[in-house]
Amino acid sequence: MDKKSDTMEKVVSLCKRRGFVFQGSEIYGGLAGVFDYGPNGVELLNNLKQLWWKANVYDKENYYGIDSGMFKHPKVWEASGHTSGFSDPLADCRECNTRIRVDKELEAIGVTADEKMSEEEINKLFEENREKISCPKCGQKDFTPARAFNLLVKSNLGDFTSEGGEPVYLPGEACQGIYLNYKNILNSMSPKLPFGMAQIGKAFRNEISPRNFLFRTREMEQADTQFFVKPNENKEAFEKIKQDRFDWYVSIGIKPENLRFTQHKNLVFYAADAWDIEYNFPGGFDELEGIHDRTDYDLTQHMKFSGVDLNYTDPETGEKYIPWILETSVGLGRMFLAVLADAYHEEEMDGNTRTVLKLHPDLAPNRVAVSPLLKNKPELVEKAREVFKLLKAEFGNVAWDDNGNVGKRYRRQDEIGTPSCIVIDFETLGQEKPELADTVTVRDRDTGEQERVAIADLIQRLK
Ligand code: ATP
Question: What global pTM score does this model have?
Fold first, then answer.
């Protein structure tokens, strides 16, 4: 096993062992492409969302947050092109019926394919490279031609109405909710161009081969921003947004050498430019976030299909136009995986190998853990409870940990990524050295160093 896939296995195992992520419906044998977040996972996920929201709404003056309904009018997915064009090219192995995603297999042998290519274009490339692609299960090279397989997930909402008609889909991408509410924002918040909208929302895709843990799932959450600009005033803003998003990943602790930009070679017909921020996942560099210059396509399509005027009127000049849209879109699961893979370290400490998640303190599931040195000494437990309550009132996510000996607690909190551990001992009670009364031991996750801090100074010290 190479080092990288080894890292993936270790991250998956840590996620399960320490209550970060579990396979969805595990007791029934699991449901592929669906994962459940456990107590530590949901804290990390929520911290990621909060930091993302802060950077993309609170720290900006002209971005408006929304949370749109998941079910949308069937026409939305027609207007967006999803019912006709949102598909993966799939082929079946004639020997063992294993289904492969042809664009990804082509990419793996260095042939650029794009999900937006026609069936004919993909099949031409597939044919030309047939000898280089083998079935991942049986190794044969005999496949059916690729067929487009639509990724939208149908619901039965509306089946009970007399209208019959088109199915109501689950969202294939979260951003459509932003386009649908653009006019509501113009009318209710009166923003002046340029302005942005932001949303974190669920999306569902019939991915044929969900893989690499949280990297490709069937149910996901996407964090999207759409920035509305005057036509042709896109270039400077696009560059700024790109850099802003890259810098944000660095600000939450991801190593810059594990991030890179890649420009799309095959632009979809309406796009003016498209880039990915790639992360060096355990499987190698791959798309973390997409940054797209979508021109006026989305609003023009929705104007055409809904019949509602989506023009923006410049309040000063009276000029009317459809704004262009600059989009950023990232899957929270991919972001979660990137953060974990980046924070995962195995290293020597005190003569032992330890596993530690060196998470940014604002991301760590527990801001701090508090323990009594011995859990069978009521006076220590009582004092530790006092400190625990004090810190919980300040930070919220504070862990109480009295399981096993102190060394084991440190190892456990290292694996969860808790930046500091506090131990209340007999010195805290003033029993051994009166000058140390009301002081505690604070142990640093990254260095393992311990220092004595007065309880009265703890909050300030931890901040
Ligand atoms: P890919 O080429 O990897 O399938 P995409 O180009 O289809 O991704 P977009 O439709 O642009 O992705 O979605 C925006 C973001 O949503 C991606 O950058 C990624 O972070 C996330 N994303 C997309 N599909 C999935 C998935 N199946 N599982 C998890 N995250 C996903």
Answer: 0.91
